[in-house]
Predict the structure.
Amino acid sequence: MYISLIIYLCVFTQNSGDVNNYPNILLISVDTLRANHLSCYGYEYPTSPNIDKLAEKGIVFDNCIAEVPLTCPSFSSMFTSKFPRTIGVTRNGLGISEEDISITELFKDKGYFTFCVQSNWTLKAKLSGLKKGFDIYDDDFHVKRWGIFSPERIADEVTQKCIDIIKKLPEDKPFFGWVHYSDPHAPYHFRKKYNVHHEEKGRKNEKTYKTVKSYDSEIRFTDEQIGILLENIPENTTIVFVADHGESLYEHNYLGHGRKLYQNEVRIPLIIVSPEIKPGRTEIPVRGIDIGPTILGIANIQKSKGMLGMDVLNESIDKERVRVIETYGGAVPKIPILRSLMKKSGPIMQSVIVEDWKLIVKGNQKELYNINEDPKEINNMAKKYPEKVSKMQSIIEKWTKNTPINNKKDIKKLSNEDLEILRSMGYLE
């Protein structure tokens, strides 16, 4: 069965080469943001009033997953529309090469003014390579967060930096902008002013409760800043809202992200708002590699050869689409002699999702879930349905064989400062 979102779209203006015919597009992303902790995705607490307003005006994708639950691999995949293993960016601290075409370069080739306001250390230009194609890539942040380390720029500064750039945009060019917020990333800072847990219903575990309360306050603070930003962008700007990955908040005895593939880490929000798009919701199966082609499609820019994703607004999506995802643990090699070995190493865990069924494989351990009936992935049915496990595992094995790991590029040499920051963020083992 095929599902198409074309019915949601009015006809976009066919670009005739005149840059005035191209729409302004702003990609807003939030680090470590679980879809199910946003009110518009069913969360019981009011964490996201401004994001909810976006959802009311656009298309909400209820079934979008990240390729790898790590920041740089996830965004590298979105911007190149290739799998992290295909471009050799499987861990934070690695970056895309000059050969990997980014959607930003395609926008710039069409006459767009391109800018980015960054906030996460792992996305700095020297580490990620994502600066390619941007006229402005503002990653100049040095203030230590809470006096401990310096991987982030706080949301209010991110918003102000972006507004400052928007005020000076060239009038004779459309723009493609990317603004990234990182506040929900650990360590979570409890922002009392933004506490949404005024009623302590369902409170069972003190440690978990405090963690969730702090995490949600970070989301609410970020949401307020997104609201301020949206008040200062040009009218008729198309908004694409997404996250790089989610977060485990002690589910499955794990806090953080990057080392497991449960839905709380891999399911991400995706909302697209445009004057040409009729509001609605859809459950079509979307994945990270689709983000780039979809953004290009909004501007009627053709994706480059080798891009693997689909334009989910204009192409038919098979309901039974196979989505294989994986994770590499997030570790960056600390010893130079190990780097060549690390870049060749395989994933620590893989998963495949086909409709409602999801298989997670780690070595000989296999977990099978019906994520529609069991969204928290509590009831492992691997022993009950061995034939389904075998069939889905063969899908993973075939995909792995046909999608080799790119081990030709050298890993970027990390400074002691880079290593210390990544260690503080939990990415070094």
Observations:
- The chain is about 25% helix and 15% strand.
- The domain at 2-13+20-319 is CATH 3.40.720.10 (Alkaline Phosphatase, subunit A).
- Residues 206-230 form the longest helix (25 residues).
- Residues 7-16 have pLDDT under 50 and may be disordered.
